[in-house]
Write a structure and sequence with these properties.
heterodimer; A: mainly alpha; MetI-like fold; globular; B: alpha+beta; Rossmann fold; OB fold (Dihydrolipoamide Acetyltransferase, E2P); 2 domains; 6-stranded mixed sheet; 5-stranded antiparallel sheet
Chain lengths: 310, 362
């Protein structure tokens, strides 16, 4: 890696101005990358270290990695505990399921929205994009509290339904998984729409016309042309929704109620309520693995796909 | 005999804007027909109505005796080559070309055979596994052509087929297109803003402006006998002299023009009256430049050389008349010489035969 880099620069040395540009470009890219890498790897290493320790009543609340005689004192106890207790497995599965449902709903809602925005006139398009981004100007927490006001038993939704005569008794929406799903979809929808919009906006509309001209019906043309060409945006949007939804803590806590079991909440409780840092760290490590492994596989598949088509 | 394509009273309105205004047109089978006009003249809208992407506000379109006015694009015996080429970026060349057959449900073996034949025709056989981003503009254009031709449409619509190519490639592709059209006998309808392209490609041209046809005819008719000021101006370069009719004879008319400073003789093809204000128009290549006053019946005006340009095969002169009007003249460089025949500010005589001038009424 280093060798190729220095050759690359040496190769450009014939033109000093170009070499200088290239050097600056690399520095500009390298610094933020380094920042991200260091501040991802360092906490990860610390969490990994804690996950291999035992909880103790001390400060910090975990046993040292090495005994006083210098021999390593690390174990996989926390991980085997996670595996042995069915509750954790169920919680992970519930989190995966909730994140999948959220991603799917965001895609179903977001795709037509992104398509509509990308096809609107320039002036309308900017307005619509602004409206998508507008909620970010208000604190995320406030917006979730607003949903509590909307969904609780005497909230706007129930009052409206009762007033319309649709129901006699308030519906229990608040503190259910349904409320959590509503909150998640609401919060993460923009992260689905924006990358989808980016890939749809770039698409040449003539392509769809051409497909229809060649005998494809409207829906056929969508699946043959629009959908595959929007794939990069779809994948980016799904990852941007799925990953944070998987570990989300605030929304299930506030909208899902105290008994809703999602991994983000378990993580929080282990850290703060139980002060079992080693177990909490193990939970975090497993969560990370659950997220990283499918993403790596997906990227591999994409790379292979690209090679084949090239 | 009924015409192959019949367009009857077609209009298309977008809100208050009328893109195509009550157009009638008949095109014969096997014809290479061009619709020529500037941007926003309605030519693309007309083409898109033929393809089925736009439904006419009023009027009727028949192709080979069938009313297709309200048929969906995928039901019409018409295929289109898009200006952007619209080659599917996620499919290789062979898959792009095969797309139309696959939608038609043609068997795999048959599809492969026809795709190979078509790729042969457009000389893309070696590139059939390439993706569009690995092709040049000219190659993409041929993919688009092959893809549009493979369903053996009754009519092929081409939207600015050569606009995206560089000059050399454009000339070569032009002749390739004509050969392919000749070989397959498919009716081509081309939309273009490039008059040179329209002139070389087509058997007939419709010149379009403000949603209406200004003139329909062969390239020669349109160039030599333009109907009106717009057509004369749009196709090639033309010098116009405004004047008042003074004499109307059996064949010839006399027009006195302040701009020319002379009485001009022209053939009175149209009905004009004495006292009417008209325009006499002459193409630059119809005008002779000489240092001495020519001794014949030609129309003759005096002027000085304002500017000149040497283009190799011909020279361009801008001659300033007494009235200040500039006349453009183009003359063939028949003689091989490094010396210039004329210099700036030389006094010259311009002359042309009366029959070379066009009388324009509006």
């Amino acid at each position: 890696m280093e060798a190729t880099q220095c050759c690359g620069i040496a190769g450009l040395m014939s033109d000093p101005a170009l070499a200088k540009d290239e050097l600056w470009r690399r520095i500009a890219v390298a610094i933020p990358y380094l920042w991200l890498l260091v501040f991802f790897l360092a906490p990860f290493a610390i969490i990994l270290k804690i996950s291999l320790a035992d909880p103790v009543l001390a400060l910090p609340p975990y046993s040292p990695s090495f005994d006083s005689d210098g021999s390593p004192a690390m174990s996989l106890n926390n991980f085997s505990f996670l595996l042995s207790d069915k509750l954790y497995a169920i919680t992970y599965l519930r989190s995966v399921a909730m994140a999948l449902v959220t991603t799917l709903l965001c895609l179903l809602l977001g795709f037509p929205m992104a398509y509509g925005i990308a096809r609107a006139s320039t002036a309308t398009r900017n307005l619509l994009l602004l409206l998508i981004v507008l909620p970010f100007w208000i604190s995320f927490l406030l917006r979730v509290y607003a949903w509590m006001g909307l969904l609780n038993n005497y909230g706007v939704v129930n009052n409206l339904l009762i007033w319309l005569g649709v129901i006699d008794q308030p519906l229990q929406i608040m503190y259910t998984d349904f409320a959590t799903a509503i909150g998640l979809v609401y919060s993460y929808l923009p992260f689905m729409i924006l990358p989808l919009y980016a890939s749809l906006e770039r698409m040449d509309l003539d392509l769809v016309d051409a497909a229809q001209d060649l005998g494809a019906t409207r829906s056929r043309a969508f699946w043959d042309i629009t959908w595959p060409l929007a794939k990069p945006g779809t994948i980016a949007g799904c990852l941007l929704v799925f990953i944070p939804a998987m570990g989300e803590y605030v929304i299930p806590y506030l909208l899902g109620g105290p008994d809703s079991l999602f991994i983000g909440r378990v993580l929080f409780d282990e850290f703060y309520s139980n002060r079992d840092w080693p177990l909490a760290s193990a939970v975090a490590i497993v969560l990370l693995m659950l997220l990283v492994v499918p993403i790596v596989l997906l990227q591999r598949a994409q790379a292979r796909n690209k090679e084949q088509s090239a | 005999m009924t015409h192959f394509i019949r367009i009857k009273g077609i209009s298309k309105r977008f809100g208050d804007f009328t893109a195509v205004d009550n157009v009638d047109l008949d095109i014969e089978q096997g014809e290479l027909f061009s619709i020529l006009g500037g941007s926003g003249c309605g030519k693309t809208t007309l083409l898109r109505m033929l393809a089925g992407f736009e439904i006419p506000s009023s009027g009727k379109i028949e192709i080979d005796g069938v009313d297709v006015t309200h048929q969906a694009p995928y039901d019409r015996p018409v295929n289109m080559m898009f200006q952007s080429y619209a080659v599917f970026p996620h499919m290789n060349v062979a898959k792009n070309v095969a797309y139309g057959l696959r939608k038609e449900g043609v068997r795999r073996t048959e599809t492969t055979k026809r795709v190979d034949e078509m790729l042969e025709l457009v000389q893309l056989t070696e590139l059939k596994h390439r993706k569009p981003d690995q092709l040049s503009g000219g190659q993409r254009q041929r993919v688009a052509l092959a893809r549009a031709l493979i369903k053996r449409p009754k009519v092929l619509l081409l939207d600015e087929p050569l606009a995206a190519l560089d000059k050399k490639l454009r000339e070569r592709t032009q002749f390739e297109l004509m050969n392919i059209q000749d070989e397959l006998g498919i009716t081509f309808v081309v939309v273009t803003h490039d008059q040179e392209e329209a002139m070389t490609l087509s058997g007939r041209i419709a010149v379009m402006d403000k949603g209406q046809f200004q003139q329909v005819g062969t390239p020669k008719e349109i160039y030599e006998f333009p109907n009106n000021r717009f057509v004369a101006d749009f196709i090639g370069t033309i010098n116009t002299f405004e004047g008042v009719v003074t004499v109307v004879g059996d064949e010839e008319i006399q027009v006195y023009s302040d701009e020319a400073g002379e009485s001009l003789t022209a053939l009175g093809r149209q009905l004009v009256e004495v006292g009417q204000t008209i325009e006499i128009a002459v193409r630059p290549e119809k005008i002779f430049v000489s240092k001495d006053k020519p001794d014949n019946d030609d129309v003759c005006i005096e002027g000085v050389v304002d500017d000149l340009g040497y283009l190799g095969n011909r020279s361009l002169y801008r001659i300033r008349l007494g009235s200040g009007k500039i006349v453009q003249v183009s003359s063939q460089n028949r003689r091989r010489s490094v010396r210039r025949f004329l210099e700036w500010e030389d006094k010259v005589w311009l002359s042309w035969r009366p029959r070379s001038a066009v009388v324009l009424l509006d």
